[in-house]
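fyi for ur records
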Amino acid sequence: MSGHISVMPAEALEQLNPRAGGVYLDGTFGGGGYSAAILEHADCTVWAIDRDPAAIARGASLAARHPGHLHLLQGCFGDMLALLTDAGVTTLDGVVLDLGVSSYQIDDPARGFSFRLDGPLDMRMDPDSGESVADWLAHAEQHEIERCLRDYGEERHARRIARRLCDMRMREPLRTTAQLAAVIAGAVPRSGERIHPATRSFQALRIQINDELGELERALPVLRDALAPAGRLCAIAFHSLEDRIVKRYFRDSARAPEFGQAPGPRFALVTRKPIYPAEAECAANPRARSARLRVLERAA
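which gave:
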């Protein structure tokens, strides 16, 4: 199994510019790349959150190398306020969010994230909670499956795929990634596209089962309001749905208060346009190609 390579670590570090004594949040610990970079850059404290218990377990060795400076918490984006409050953290000097799925999850067949590797049809980021994709597909209405594929995967053949999945489950339950990928491939007309016909549907089902967009929308206000003066919130998105949420929220946060509104903390867009990974990084790590980094700063 290959490891997770953090995307644009140098660019994220440059934007955060960690300082000695600062408190930072790695909101998606994954393989610990951003946490390690921050801790190596400055004598500071990092709180790292991940909903995957396997990621927290992997982080034990990094925490041992930085005793008292790296603290690992398991939980979802939507629970960040409670997680940080329970840990006694009220302000943050910087936040980095690496959105989407970890390479550890994609490359492990037992997690069921990949159509290229046969395994149980799961896709839960926390395998100990919630229902799997197999469970959801067993009871979801056809129109719900169609909506999921259309809205979260931007799949133009969503109706055909949903109908085929419902027909298939009448004959036998959908239990493996290979099964699902084959049904989708059979429902999608052949085209000249280079991507696998199941790519968009697998993305959509993963987002659905983990409520990824809802978790992001719940997390952004908490993290923005926790920023200390001059603190920065860095978000790296990998597809248009995530990036649209981040872009809109950052833009709205940076707007001046309307007439009659009480003055509050001011925020500024550091990145009017997103930062993209360099060509060399994309060549070395193809999964970086779709990444976009946006940065919001609380005014000093």
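Strands lie at 23-26, 45-50, 70-74, 92-98, 227-237, 267-269, 292-298. thats all i got for now
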